[in-house]
Design a protein that fits this description.
Blueprint: H1 2-12, H2 16-38, H3 41-57, H4 65-90, H5 103-124, H6 128-138, H7 143-150, H8 154-171, H9 174-181
Helix pairs in contact: 1-2, 2-3, 2-4, 2-5, 3-4, 6-8, 7-8
């Protein structure tokens, strides 16, 4: 609780350490969110970077992390939609561009980004080798492919997979764990 208060205080007073934490906490999920809306990850990175810089240069302050997160998602949504509009105006053939996302798509994208954030955070908490193997498994690699790529024995990969699943079963909400690992 004190860490969260210190973080918010640091964000409100624009401390460099807090900006680094802000970037680490929100960058990936916001890029994923913007990318879902506009189907372009490079543009999504630009949008999120712009929003974080604009936030840092602004005088906005926040009472808690929920307000900060809400602000960031709203700012990224608005900037992404504005970019889609600008791109359509520049192009005479607007069919090559995405349509403006509706509210259902936006809400779904927020949920997807937050779920991804929870999964990434949980995997980051795993021991290094176990986390690397679990990421590769989630990317679709087989145990044999992972063993070859990481120069490990297949039995080591299988053991680390079992270990990772066991740890994640404890860390992730049950519904999320079931959806993520139901095919294992």
């Amino acid at each position: 609780m004190d860490d969260i208060k210190a973080f918010i205080t640091g964000v409100n007073s624009r401390q460099k350490k807090s900006f680094e934490q802000l970037f680490q906490l929100f960058y990936k999920e916001l890029v994923y969110f913007s990318g879902l809306l506009q189907k372009n990850s490079e543009d999504a990175e630009d949008v999120v970077t712009d929003v974080l810089i604009q936030l840092w240069e602004s005088k906005y302050t926040f009472d808690n992390v929920n307000y900060l997160r809400s602000f960031l998602y709203t700012a990224v949504k608005n900037k992404t939609i504005n970019k889609i509009h600008r791109d359509k105006k520049v192009s005479k053939d607007s069919s090559i561009f995405n349509v403006i996302p509706d509210n259902e798509t936006i809400i779904s994208s927020i949920v997807d980004a937050q779920v991804l954030s929870i999964i990434n955070y949980s995997i980051d908490q795993l021991p290094d080798e176990c986390g690397k193997i679990m990421r590769m498994i989630l990317e679709g690699y087989s145990c044999a492919e992972i063993a070859i790529k990481l120069n490990l024995a297949p039995s080591t990969v299988r053991a680390q997979k079992r270990r990772g699943i066991s740890i994640l079963r404890e860390k992730l909400p049950k519904d999320l764990f079931f959806i993520l690992f139901s095919h294992f």
